[in-house]
Amino acid sequence: MSRKNPLGLAVLALLAERPMHPYEMAVTLRQRAKEASIKLNYGSLYTVIGSLEREGHIHARERTREGTRPERSVYELTQFGEVELHEWMYDLLARPVKEYPQFEAALSLMPVLQPDEVATLLAERIARIDREIEKVGHILGSVAVRALPRLFTIETEYYVAMLEAEREWVVKLVQLINKSDGKFTSEWRALHTRQYKAAPATKRGRSTKEVERKESAAMNSATKARRSSTAAGNEKPPEPRARTRKR
């Protein structure tokens, strides 16, 4: 299977501990809060298990059925699966890969909005990051009270570190946008000025065609309203023109 799905890696890691059936795998992952780092649902879990079994990384050690209930399989790791587990871990830990976060995509397209608007939105993002850091901090605090070894929450520490680094960077970006000399935003603002001069009928965030369509719809609605008002006042509408049938 593709190494792009970390749920497969999680299954291999669980079976390296002991044989398990799928339900036990899901429960164990949730008890360890791994769904915060790995997308987990039963449908995708069974799909991943089927793929790993077809490729020989795991196999069903026993299959049992009780009455009319679905068959229950207990899986274990094969020797081939153990090799795959370690090679997959080596690859992920040692090699940085290019990922495509949504925030990075938004930054690449940021000039479509006005600088002041972007600064406001980024300030909102900073506030949300602060709340997330506080929330995760409470979670780590409760874990510390239970004396859970730090090893088993290291991915949460990484998550907080990434949030803090992002917050620091976004704060600097907002300061850059709001800087009094305006060097960073001069061409940005000029771009919007040129666009509005070139298309004065265009409203922000909507194309000219969309504006015209909505204006036309508004006119039609107004016409219908006037007709309804005329009918309510018992005024007779003008007689329709007689149509001449073409021969």
Description:
With 247 residues, the chain is mainly α. The chain folds into two domains: 6-94, Orthogonal Bundle (Arc Repressor Mutant, subunit A), CATH 1.10.10; 102-189. The chain has helices at residues 6-17, 22-31, 42-54, 79-94, 102-108, 115-145, 154-177, 186-198, 208-232; strands at 58-64, 72-77. The protein has a two-stranded antiparallel sheet with strand order 1-2. Helix 1 (6-17) crosses helix 4 and helix 6 (115-145) runs antiparallel to helix 7.
Number of helices: 9
Rg is: 31 Å
Kindly provide the name of the CATH class of the largest domain. Mainly Alpha
The helix content is 55-70%
- Low-pLDDT sequence parts: 201-208, 226-237
Brief characterization of the structure:
The protein is mainly alpha-helical and 247 residues long. It has 9 helices and 2 strands; from the N terminus they run H-H-H-E-E-H-H-H-H-H-H.
Topology diagram in text:
Layout: H1 6-17, H2 22-31, H3 42-54, E1 58-64, E2 72-77, H4 79-94, H5 102-108, H6 115-145, H7 154-177, H8 186-198, H9 208-232
Antiparallel strand pairs: 1-2
Helix pairs in contact: 1-4, 6-7
